[in-house]
Design goal:
six-stranded mixed β-sheet, single chain, 39% helix, globular
């Protein structure tokens, strides 16, 4: 289990009520909070029409996600901080690829995304031993873009929300 310490400055990622929230937390207190229109369910409804997102659907979603992140240049200032989340959808998608809790590097997330992308391009889910669920795929996609564009080295999936 990966506990959620409260004594270090970090960025907390959460998805709820139709938005994705990135909050800078220091010593347990929320310092800043940025809401983005990137909640998993909302993006799935907007961009995904198939049980397994098509290559075109993924590309369209990537463009939207990148635009939303680039509209907020201040978000890039926090890339040196730890990124943490207790989100159950992220825990589920990462859990299918290993353990849901723990730290996933940008490279780990990219490698998992590559496996999903192969399936979108017509590959077999059985070959990659992946059970594709559209909302989890979208969550992985958003996480990948956040790690890349906001320059986070990794994400730590914690057992309970950090304050």
């Amino acid at each position: 289990m990966t506990p959620a310490p409260t004594d270090t400055r970090h960025v907390r990622l959460s998805a709820a009520q139709g938005e994705l929230v990135l909050a800078v937390v220091d010593g347990g207190a929320e310092i800043t909070r940025t809401a983005l229109p990137l909640a998993w369910g909302r993006l799935r409804e907007r961009f995904v029409r198939h049980a397994i997102p098509s290559e075109a659907e993924v590309e369209h979603a990537i463009n939207f996600i990148e635009d939303a992140l680039m509209e907020r240049p201040a978000l890039r200032e926090h890339g040196g901080l730890a990124l943490v989340s207790a989100d159950p959808v992220l825990r589920a998608v990462l859990g299918r690829a290993g353990t849901g809790a723990g730290t996933w590097s940008r490279g780990d997330v990219e490698a998992l995304f590559t496996r999903y992308a192969r399936i979108s391009m017509g590959g077999s889910p059985a070959r990659d031993a992946i059970e594709v669920r559209a909302e989890e795929y979208v969550a992985l996609l958003v996480l990948r873009e956040i790690l890349h564009h906001l320059d986070f080295a990794a994400i730590t999936i914690v057992d309970e929300p950090r304050p």
